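Continued from yesterday's entry.
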Amino acid sequence: MIKGSNVALADLSDDVGSVIVSLGWSSPTGEGDADVSVLLLDANGKVRSDSDFYFYNHPVAVDGSVQLLGKTPTVDGSEDRISFDLTAVPSEIDRIVVAASRYDGARFGELEDVRITLADAAGESLLRFAVDDAGSVTAVIFGELYRRGEEWKFRAVGQGYAIGLAGLAADFGVDIEDDAAAEAEGSLEAADGEEQTDAAGPAPAEEPNQQAALEAIPAPRRPEGEAVGPKAPSSRPRTSKKKVTLPKTVKKTLAENDSWKRARLFPVSVLKSDRDREMRATSVLLAVMAQVPEFSRRLTAAFGAPAGRMETFTEVSLPHGDSPRRPDGVIRVERAGKLWTALVETKTNGNALKADQVQAYMDIAARRGYEAVITLTNDVALEGSPLVDVKIDKRRKHKVALWHLSWAEVTYQAQMLIRHEGVSNAAHAWLLQELLHYLQHENSGCHGFQNMGPAWVPVRNGIDEETLCQGDARALEVVESWERLIRQVCLRLGGELGQKALPVQRAKRGTDPKERRNQLADQLCLDGRLQAELRIDGTPGVLAVSADLRTGKLRTSIEIPAPEQGYPLSWVKRLVRRLAEAPADLHVETLVDSAAGGSRGTLERLRPEPADLLPKDSGTRITGFRLSLLKSMGSGRGNAESGFIRSVDDAVQRFYTTVVVHLDAPTARQAPSKERTTAG
């Protein structure tokens, strides 16, 4: 689409009751990011109340009409996805504005490939709009969904704001507290002295073609008699009800001794076979989904499921040819008299999906008018590399979507709700806690990605013997397994921290996923290293992981920028003080603007003499510091104590908890409220 154009969703697909909108971008440094936000506006162009404003601290609508699904990695960066159940949007809502904002003074012009895409309930991409002229603005309205009679349409907007998230929200009627209002006011004053034509409208961007606001997004109309000018700061009401999370400290047990085992809702001791594990895991998960709406929406909103009454079933018999088929489970959601149905196929331990089995379920779903087939295994799906290949009969008008979940993703969503974000009541929190205990038990079989594959040992030996050649298909298999492992590490770390953790992609715009992996496989053959980067919210830099298959060493590291003010000696002294609890074998290197390189040493040696980190040449400028930990990596392909997977997971966990947590966090983003009200 081009800027200012619009299209009726019904002209693009027959299945647009639910849609997924994705906002994406890439960053040359891997550290660029933005926050998405959604505003539901009435006919006056304003929110009805603050609860119509959805952002990182208020991600889900009670009626299920809006749900911010969070970020997912893509080949050239990441996408922030939003699920809209358009059938649940209140009738008094006239349009839905989809925007994103940057913080800490960052501008959208620093990002690449800024775009918005929209997909229907079956996951089929319907439209794409690239925002090519964002420039130096700090917030952008990407597009809007709006009503025309009984149908919904989409308009490509691409309007830049120079006043950030706080100013954008205030312009559409959201109350802003003192600090956010001050931020908005300061941004207005700092917008290069540009003159505002309407105090209520978007600040014009610096590019020539953005000197005036688009008519597509008019400034919200003010009630008659309201003075034009800065709004007096007011206390912002809460955006959500009080929620329940697990207590930070565990109550003292009433058991007499450690031999007493707590009674569990979902016991695992009776599981003796893979079939038992699959049946139990499916039943446990689907039962909790039916009882905890917050959790089930987290898992199904991205699959196009509406927000409504959910029932779940196991071992359902469905006719198929000469003999019936029995999918592991069925999810059924009712809304406004319509049913949404998904068949579920699960695998536990290292069991792989069977293509013919999934194909049969896709055929059954198509014939019976079901909407989706969901596979659930310990494996992690990769973009452009499906776990199973199925044939889609395009002659059929009814489309069936094939979606995949990993058990690691299920665990992550449960952790985020009961440990960080909260659920509606204590009973829901207890159910999720029991589910989490079950999934993390060693006997459940739901342990996530746990095998580097049959190519791991031959590739490792080939690198050691220098016989592995470029183009070897086994190297590509290892690269794909490495990418799956890193995505799972991000899920586990993010679930523990309550922070977004994503793999960083520095690929150029438009690079094909398979082509990128082939390049990484060739590089593995040349230097024998697997490398990845993780971006974690609240950290001052990108966390890098490198596995050297020649030396058998794992390196975890982070580069932090030098302070903008002060003296170099003060910088290094402060850094060493901050790392007082870090491991003594931590390597510290000074980064300089000279080809000769900076000083380096272990923390043990530097503690008594921090000045040893200073360059020998007083004229050399310090640009930052690199902190690194080395450890031996596991050799086995599995997830045992001596396995490679466990060693990578442990290395990242150790580096974060012993090094990264001691570093100065970057400046906190400015939220549109004085405190980020996580749960009221």
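--- second protein ---
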Amino acid sequence: MPAFALPDTFVVAPLSASEFDPSAAAVTHEVIAAGPESVYHRLAGDQESEAVFLLARHVLNGFLDGAREPTDQACGAQEADGIAERTAQVHRQISGVLQPLREAEPRVRAAVLAQRAPLALIGGCWLDSVSQPATQPSIVVNHLVRHQFVWRGEGNPRRGLQQLRWRALEDLGVFLPDVMAPDFLRRAEARPLTAWHGAYHLSLARLPTTFLPEVVGTHYAVAALGVDELLLGTRPMLVEADLRAALADYLALAPNSVRNRLYAAVTRTLAMELEHVRLLADVAEWHAGLSLDAQVARIVARHAPFAGKQHRNVRVGGRPLTERFADPDFDLAAFIGDLRVSPQLKPRDGGCRFLRAIKFGGPMFGIFDEQEAATFQRWAEAIAAGNPPGVELTPNTAGDDTARALAEAIGALPPEVRLRAAGRSDDREFLHRLVNIENFPNTLALARARAEEGLARAEILFEHGGAGVLTDASWFDYSPSALNERVDRIYWDKLVNPYRPLTEIPDRDEVIFGQKTFALGSMIDGAWAHRIGATGRYTRRSDGMLYSIYADEMGRGDVTKNHITLIYQVLASMGIEVPHIRDTAFLDQDELPDHLYGFSLFQLSLALFPDSLYDEILGYNLGIEMFGLGTMRMHETQKLRRYGFDAAYEEAHLTIDNLSAGHARQSAEIIIAYLHDVAKLSGADAVSSHWERIWRGYASFAYFIEHELVAGLTRHEPADVII
């Protein structure tokens, strides 16, 4: 059985068939049939369903099928340098195309920036879950974690890449709703090709383990090209040399087949960015070519569907306005021509009737925004000056041919997909499926059931949790001071004050066995939070704070400080060798006790639902971060040192989880910050229901720790314990 050894040289999960329930196929085809906007919105708004994993497979297959290219480039840094040179050449091309767009009149530039926004505002999404139990502590993944930490503002969402770009857009006069808002793409007037490009990036975010070569290649190409920085006039947050170093490390580790996939991804991404920049140029040209009449026609088309009966006495071209707008054969160009010569636009002292109507006090005030009102003003002035009509309405078709070809390719069922329902499995098989969830999305329903079951059974501790040895999950009414008081009491009364140094150290074999009981949980350290803060969801203080804890667990990209690295070092010091948990060989490992899988299965199941079980994850996080303190850790450290074993994992938790300012205190502050936002947005009455869910999450952790208490309450030994 191949044992895992540091350093972790993982470069990709096998591109094997992924299993989906047949029902997911029907949902996915419905989304694809609805068009690229539907695909984009589903991928952005859903990170929990089986269907979205299949949708991502479709999109990636459509973009990458046939794109792999053979190569005979040399190894290591020379390969990275060659890719960098290719990227620099495309950068020069792109810069030439973008320069006139940056200098365009404000109306045209705003249209260009809005068109790019569906890509700019999801920038870096491909790193959302690249760090996970299946990929840690990979050398390359930790490079990407370091980059992600920078892009996420080092735990401050306001300083993150997406928020910085959002503010830059608004500084340039482009105001759009949230990326996940139903009208985001419509407000951006996103072309179908723009939506497809965004769908590609979002699909990588859903399948980063299986498509890690494509993630690495896309990451380098997009970040090094810097299209959005060129357009917005902002400074890149990552330097090219650092991007190239990560690329070189990956290429040095990857076999030829994986290198070829990366080269193909770089080639595809460079072509896509150049393709999109050219689309932006076409969009700019189209907007610049719009006559005033055509600009007015666009405004009328936007508002006509909402014209009510209040306009029944207004006539244009001899017909009531409401009648014309309701006509299924409504001729927009003819209407603009008629409106041009109507009494409403006839010049009078103080302006025409229409302009008076849209000003404050007029019957149409508030219908049109400032830019639209200014366009009407210029149009009325042009009519008064005798400018001839120009109502030619040429549709914007930028990128449509390419988009249609992509739609056809994406609609086909990917070859790496197998439709079958998930059957029940033993704990080992279930763990394998959860760790490798990209290949087993049909397991998500079982994971949801496992998470809900664990949360429900933990509620027994609301009444009896005060008797816990290391936790106190008994219920109390929330207030910030009450939470801090409970945390402090657990810390002093249960974790610290009871501590006495061991006067007798168990024998060597017993110490090793004790570490084995912890090991499986330690191998997925941080997993409960690895999907927190994904694109479109990284806006609250609590998001940044919880992401920061996860980043700390992963060493903020320093693989030597990564907690997964540390636990494998501990095991190696005791001569314990097991395969990595992502490998099928782990199914046959015989070092770690079988009865301990339940704790890890619950944690991994909980982690897969970061949106719908967000509250519960916050409570669970509090429990597990406090568990890193006090008597248990100090005793384990004493035992390990006695026999010369590596104690780094225990020592790291005693320091980083400290209650003064470390993860334990931060975990309480996260809950307080989150519930403050709940009260602010939904009212104080909404806090209690969220608090109950949070405390249920804490109790679900305590349920696994307090096995003697739980056994007494339920009259049987729990199926799984961790101490």
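The beta strands are 18-20, 315-316, 319-320, 417-419. Residues 68-77 have pLDDT under 50 and may be disordered. Will compare against the first tomorrow.
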